Amino acid sequence: MADGAIDIRRVARTLSLVENRRPESQAVLRDAYAMARHIPVVGVTGPPGAGKSTLLDRLALHWAEKGEKLAVIAVDPSSPFTGGAVLGDRFRMDRASAHPRVFVRSLASRGHVGGLSRAVQDVVTVVASLGFDRVIVETVGSGQADVEVATLADCVVVVSVPGLGDQLQAAKAGILEIGDVYAVNKRDLPGADTVAGHLEANLDLIYPGSPGVNQPDGNQVHDAMRANASVQRRHGGAGSKESFWRPRVLRVSASSGADVQTLSDAVDEFLAWQRATGREEERRAERFRSHILRLAAGRLMAQSLPEGASASLPILAEAVTQGAMTPDEAAERLLAALLAAWQDRPRC
Known about the structure:
This protein is of the alpha/beta class. It folds into two domains: 8-207 and 247-296, Rossmann fold; 305-344, no CATH class. The chain is built from 13 helices and nine strands. Strand 2 (70-76), helix 4 (94-97) and strand 3 (102-108) form a beta-alpha-beta unit. Helix 3 (52-65) crosses helix 10 and helix 12 (307-321) packs antiparallel against helix 13. The protein is globular, with a radius of gyration of 22 Å. The model is unreliable at 78-89 and 110-116 (pLDDT under 50).
């Protein structure tokens, strides 16, 4: 892709091949992965109604005006009838989508839990091979379950908003373990300072130091951060000989664009720190490990389930329904049938 405007039709056709798993997509994927071209992946997640799409629109436009070519992948819930994307969040990104250096694509989750689509990792890799400088991924927005983006993105922005009726949202499972930057949107509404304060208070339980990059301090030992393997792996450990990152909490307004520049700077500050410490490469290696395992598990169940095991599945489900066994016991029996079928197969 040459400097200047994006060839939207070419990019759209290529991504459609990958998303729909067409036979031709294998050659596209081989070439894309062979290039091993890595670009920053920024994940944007948060509850429905937090204004993620509008904020993302502002961020994408900000980076595009600085000269970057961006791909925005908005993962939407799927239609139960066609499997296609329902919300079409790109229609709320009217500023960015009109820019010649921004490509916006809705991707259906197709029932995949965790807020992402099964094809999104391949889509991100193909986007990098097509010459983009950065990709932003917006997740479905399913609350506490919407945490899989942490395994995909180089930087995760968690968007909160006042007025959702749950001031303890910040403390819920997964939220404090996936965020690299926290954005409290609609900062002019009553309660925005309270939401930000709750986030800071909960971060205080895990992180020492001040928001942003903290230099090593042998006297600064924080048991909670050291005990949290996920946090330490991504953000470093207090008391070590290396610098560590404490997530920033920023108040922004997507509608007016206030402090979007500050949010952009925080994202780039984290990406620069992560790259300098080597954690960027570690995070990407972990991403591909997870992706390979998901693909292997899916193919194992889809292609290798023997006829006998398939026939026993309705019987096992009925047994669980009637209280004759637990789901764990049913899963063990299904796995035993699968292993037995493999052992009976003729060896080549």
